[in-house]
């Protein structure tokens, strides 16, 4: 196919175009100690991105600015600052409609300002990759991490992967393009990290050589026409299905929405192959489980260690993809658990709701602990919550 | 693209939709002299549309389509409104994404096309109503001009939100009573042509669609200047006869009445010095060619 002919060639920047699998699993990697923002830069350096649009909002500003440096260095085709997140996501849409591989970043209130675009991206089958660095949503004013915005983005028709570490951030950014651009998926993807915890702290990351890059996006593998006039215009559509009140238009609209949801589910096979399953388990045969995503999992791991010191055995299930949601995997992993704790960095507990919706006997789910407004979640808070419930000091079954 | 690309495989010719066969056989694509006179002859310039009987926007739409110098490599970006009902009938790719974000979408699109097809002409034309251009999308309209994005913005100014039933818009005349302006609009019609000029547009024109030659010239100049020099803006009066209380046959007269020397849509045109120089260079290119052909 066309993609094969480009493998082994060299791009304008002198990077060798390699098979994605080679870049992900075989290419030698070197260890670096860098912030999440720098990791974003290194992922995008290798991602053959055509266009990136940026707008400042903490904590994603730094990464967005670093992508600008890549543009000056010649690794990114075009780059500019939009006038607001709504405009940025619209500019990304235009670029993607035109057949470009697109990258942008957002955070908190910016994500909400941009919001109307996300279901439009999905409905238009635009495989834009957006790095969401979650933070609090006003008011009261807060720039610290909070995953409330993620709960709101769940049902836009996008793929959503939640990275726990800088290493996952690097891998998800690169692998995300490959899954999102598959013809049977072809949807936007949000690669999420918890702002500051991942974006602004340094971590050890294994990175392949900067001389290697992903194959560029091939817009003609899209299930909808690319808007570049290189293929015949769709003049044969004599009956507009938009806004016309007839049975066909209703049926088209309804089935299109279903198709987007089906495409999310179809992404599983590609995702499982590339990121090794939609969940990760540790001691999942324990009576008590912690189930969560992002850095709440990291704090959960520490809580497990503290509890083990006291002879309490607790397991953990890490949810890597929020869309597709790993229903069956979570059902299996939690089938023997008596209590399921869901620590979350938000006030509403959307992750607990998601889990409750897919498992039997969901009175086993303890919603929390919750921290919100940018508070950190010390492992002791998780430990305390678990002990309270075990001591019968907290009601387990909730109405 | 060109007509070559839309040729039908011989074996499939008889089973292709008649509209498609017609497009391939006799579209105005690739013809240098295409213009408004092709309206009514070429089927791809909207044979049918879903607008109201007598709607001035429908004829404006046809003129715009007929006057695109390079339809085979033009992508149009629309916005929510009556235009989004017509676009599916049009033989030019178009994008309708959200209400008001047309200039932002066009910015990304134009840059993507410039990146993917360096050295190839790819025109982007925004076509939206006054609500999308001047109210909800004003920020993105202006910012695309500030950034000198190389595409045309055409505003179908009907001085109200027609598609939603005649509410007040920024381009509505002061004092006009409409839904959401029950005591009459309190402020003047927004001076977008002047703002466009100040914001960096290299070509700005205000007119109605009652004179097709004039529309044709404006559209062609706007596209050519946007392609090479920078952003351009055209504001066309396309009254919503339904919402201002006119009969189906009165649209043309309404436009004529509004383009008198002291009226709101008196013909005005601004061309930047850079754009003038560019147009002059195009003229020069034409002339030697004409001389050489006569000599030959």
TrEMBL record, chain A:
Membrane-spanning residues: none
Pfam families associated with the record: PFOR_II, POR_N
BP GO annotations: response to oxidative stress
Record's keyword terms, sorted: Oxidoreductase
Superkingdom of origin organism: Bacteria
Cross-referenced InterPro entries: PFOR_II (IPR033412), Pyruvate:ferred/Flavod_OxRd (IPR050722), Pyrv_Fd/Flavodoxin_OxRdtase_N (IPR002880), THDP-binding (IPR029061), Transketo_C/PFOR_II (IPR009014)
Stretches assigned to the Pyruvate flavodoxin/ferredoxin oxidoreductase pyrimidine binding domain: 43-261
Oxidoreductase as UniProt keyword: yes
Domain Pyruvate:ferredoxin oxidoreductase core positions: 286-379
A GO molecular function held by the record: oxidoreductase activity
Record SUPFAM superfamilies: Thiamin diphosphate-binding fold (THDP-binding), TK C-terminal domain-like
Protein name per its UniProtKB record: Ferredoxin oxidoreductase
Organism listed in the record: Candidatus Manganitrophus noduliformans
The organism's taxonomic lineage, starting at the top: Bacteria, Pseudomonadati, Nitrospirota, Nitrospiria, Candidatus Troglogloeales
From TrEMBL, chain B:
InterPro entries, per the entry: PorB-like, THDP-binding, TPP_enzyme_TPP-bd
Listed GO biological process terms: small molecule metabolic process
Superkingdom, taxonomy of origin: Bacteria
Recorded GO MF terms: oxidoreductase activity; thiamine pyrophosphate binding
Keyword annotations from UniProtKB, A to Z: Oxidoreductase
Domain Thiamine pyrophosphate enzyme TPP-binding: 89-235
Membrane-spanning ranges: none
This protein's name: Ferredoxin oxidoreductase
Record organism: Candidatus Manganitrophus noduliformans
Phylogenetic placement of the source organism: Bacteria, Pseudomonadati, Nitrospirota, Nitrospiria, Candidatus Troglogloeales
């Amino acid at each position: 196919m066309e993609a094969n002919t480009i493998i082994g060639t060299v791009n304008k920047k002198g990077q060798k175009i390699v098979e994605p699998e080679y870049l992900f699993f075989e290419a030698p990697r070197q260890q670096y100690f860098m912030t999440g923002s720098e990791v974003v830069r290194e992922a995008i350096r290798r991602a053959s991105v055509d266009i990136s649009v940026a707008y400042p909002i903490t904590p994603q500003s730094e990464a967005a600015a670093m992508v600008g440096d890549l543009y000056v260095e010649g690794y990114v085709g075009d780059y500019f600052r939009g006038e607001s997140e709504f405009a940025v996501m619209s500019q990304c849409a235009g670029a993607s409609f035109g057949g470009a591989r697109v990258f942008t970043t957002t955070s908190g209130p910016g994500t909400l300002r941009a919001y109307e675009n996300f279901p439009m991206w999905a409905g238009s089958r635009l495989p834009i990759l957006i790095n969401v660095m979650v933070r609090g949503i006003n008011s009261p004013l807060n720039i610290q991490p909070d995953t409330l915005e993620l709960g709101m983005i769940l049902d836009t028709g996008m793929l959503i992967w939640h990275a726990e570490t800088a290493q996952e951030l690097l891998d998800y950014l690169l692998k995300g393009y490959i899954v999102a651009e598959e013809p049977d998926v072809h949807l936007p993807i949000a690669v999420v990290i918890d702002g500051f915890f991942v974006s602004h702290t340094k971590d050890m990351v294994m990175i392949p050589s900067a001389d290697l890059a992903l194959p560029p996006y091939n817009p003609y593998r899209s299930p909808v026409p690319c808007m570049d006039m290189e293929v015949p215009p769709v003049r044969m559509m004599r009956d507009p299905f938009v806004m016309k009140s007839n049975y066909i238009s209703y049926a088209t609209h309804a089935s299109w929405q279903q198709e987007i949801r089906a495409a999310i589910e179809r992404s599983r096979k590609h995702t499982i192959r590339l990121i090794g399953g939609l969940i990760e388990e540790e001691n999942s045969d324990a009576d008590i489980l912690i189930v969560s995503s992002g850095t709440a999992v990291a704090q959960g791991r520490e809580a497990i260690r503290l509890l083990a010191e006291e002879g309490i055995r607790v397991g953990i299930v890490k949810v890597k993809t929020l869309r597709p949601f790993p229903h069956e995997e979570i059902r299996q992993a939690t089938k023997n658990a008596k209590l399921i704790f869901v620590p979350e960095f938000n006030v509403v507990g959307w992750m607990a709701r998601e889990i409750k919706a897919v498992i039997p006997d969901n009175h086993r789910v303890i919603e929390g602990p919750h921290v919100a407004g940018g508070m950190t979640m010390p492992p002791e808070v998780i430990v305390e919550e678990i002990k309270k419930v075990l001591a019968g000091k907290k009601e387990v079954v909730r109405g | 693209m060109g007509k070559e690309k839309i040729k039908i495989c011989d074996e499939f010719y008889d089973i292709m939709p008649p509209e498609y066969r017609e497009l391939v056989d006799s579209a105005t694509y690739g013809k240098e002299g295409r213009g408004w006179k092709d309206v009514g002859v070429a089927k791809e310039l909207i044979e049918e549309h879903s607008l109201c009987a007598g709607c001035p926007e429908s004829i404006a739409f046809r003129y715009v389509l007929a006057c695109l110098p390079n339809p085979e490599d033009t992508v149009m970006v629309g916005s929510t409104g009556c235009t989004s009902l017509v676009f599916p009938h049009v033989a030019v790719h178009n994008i309708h994404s959200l209400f008001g974000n047309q200039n932002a979408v066009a910015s990304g699109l134009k840059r993507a096309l410039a990146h993917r097809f360096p050295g190839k002409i790819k025109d982007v034309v925004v076509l939206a109503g006054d609500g999308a251009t001047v109210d909800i999308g004003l920020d993105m309209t202006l910012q695309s001009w500030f950034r000198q994005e190389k595409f045309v913005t055409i505003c179908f100014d009907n001085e109200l939100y027609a598609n939603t039933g005649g509410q007040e818009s920024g381009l509505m005349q002061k004092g006009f009573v409409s839904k959401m302006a029950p005591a009459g609009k309190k402020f003047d019609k927004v001076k977008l042509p002047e703002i466009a000029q100040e914001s960096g547009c290299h070509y700005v024109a205000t007119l109605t669609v009652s004179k097709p030659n004039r529309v044709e010239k404006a559209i062609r100049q706007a596209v050519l200047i946007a392609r090479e020099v920078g952003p351009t803006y055209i504001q066309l009066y396309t009254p919503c006869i339904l919402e201002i209380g006119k009969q189906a046959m009165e649209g043309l007269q309404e436009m004529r009445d509004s383009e008198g020397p002291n009226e709101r849509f008196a013909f005005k045109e601004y061309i930047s010095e850079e754009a003038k120089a560019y147009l002059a260079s195009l003229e020069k290119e034409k002339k030697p060619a004409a001389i050489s052909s006569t000599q030959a």
